[in-house]
Amino acid sequence: MLSLVVLISGGGSNLRALLEATSESAFPARVVAVGADNEAEGLGHAEAWSIPSFTVVPSTFESREAWGEELLEQILRWSPDLVVCAGFMRILPPNVVRALSPRLINTHPALLPAFPGAHAVRDALAAGVDTTGVTVHVIDEGVDTGPVIVQRAVPVHPGDTEHELHERIKTVERELLVAAVRDIAEQTVDLEELAAR
């Protein structure tokens, strides 16, 4: 049984999808703790499922590195097999990435390497592409540069607003994240091998 710590920053829709999936007895993973970088609305999902949570707020630390050290300490307390950044909107400091990667994954609302960074949906619309999508990838020390685990395309419709497109992407993102976690748990995806390529 794969144990997960999930990190969030907002409403936690990806977290909720994972909690729903892991509530099924046949699903090969369990969420053991949820972490956040603020008093995120999504922490309510952890409470609803009686999952322990922790919050490590960057502004309360002298440096990004000090924040990272405390975040890492909180994560390691749960000895997770996998750490999932599910809408976690902070770039992790190198010391955190080095300690956890490649068992550290993220979802991104684009088909990487296209449109990395925090504004992927807006950037895709600005570029006028007719297809974007979702990537689940290993986090490395770059920004959205880690090995790709799985991707799925999402069409861009004429006249799409950023919100409309993002909502369609989020639906796919939830499905893809759950599938990726299952594949990692069932060892049909080998993160060590991916990272070594």
CATH architecture of the largest domain: 3-Layer(aba) Sandwich
Regions with little confidence, pLDDT below 50 for 5+ residues = none
The CATH top-level class label of the largest domain: Alpha Beta
Shape: globular
Order of H and E elements = EHEHEHEHEHEEHH
What is the terminal-to-terminal distance? 26 Å
Strand content: 15-25%
Question: How many distinct beta strands?
Answer: 7
What structural class results from the helix and strand content?
alpha/beta
Going by CATH, what is the homologous superfamily of the largest domain? Formyl transferase, N-terminal domain
Set out the fold topology:
Layout: E1 2-8, H1 13-22, E2 29-36, H2 43-48, E3 53-55, H3 64-76, E4 82-85, H4 94-100, E5 104-108, H5 120-127, E6 131-138, E7 148-155, H6 162-185, H7 191-196
Parallel strand pairs: 1-2, 1-4, 2-3, 4-5
Antiparallel strand pairs: 5-6, 6-7
Helix pairs in contact: 1-6, 3-4
Describe it.
The chain is α/β, with parallel strands linked by helices and 197 residues long. The chain folds into 2 domains: 1-100, Formyl transferase, N-terminal domain (Rossmann fold), CATH 3.40.50.170; 107-197, Rossmann fold, CATH 3.40.50.170. It contains 7 helices and 7 strands; from the N terminus they run βαβαβαβαβαββαα. The chain has a 7-stranded mixed β-sheet, sandwiched between helices. Helix 1 (13-22) runs parallel beside helix 6 and helix 3 (64-76) runs parallel beside helix 4 (94-100). It starts with a strand and ends with a helix. The model has no long low-confidence stretch (mean pLDDT 96). The record marks 144 as: Raises pKa of active site His. The active site is at 108 (proton donor). GO terms for molecular function: phosphoribosylglycinamide formyltransferase activity.
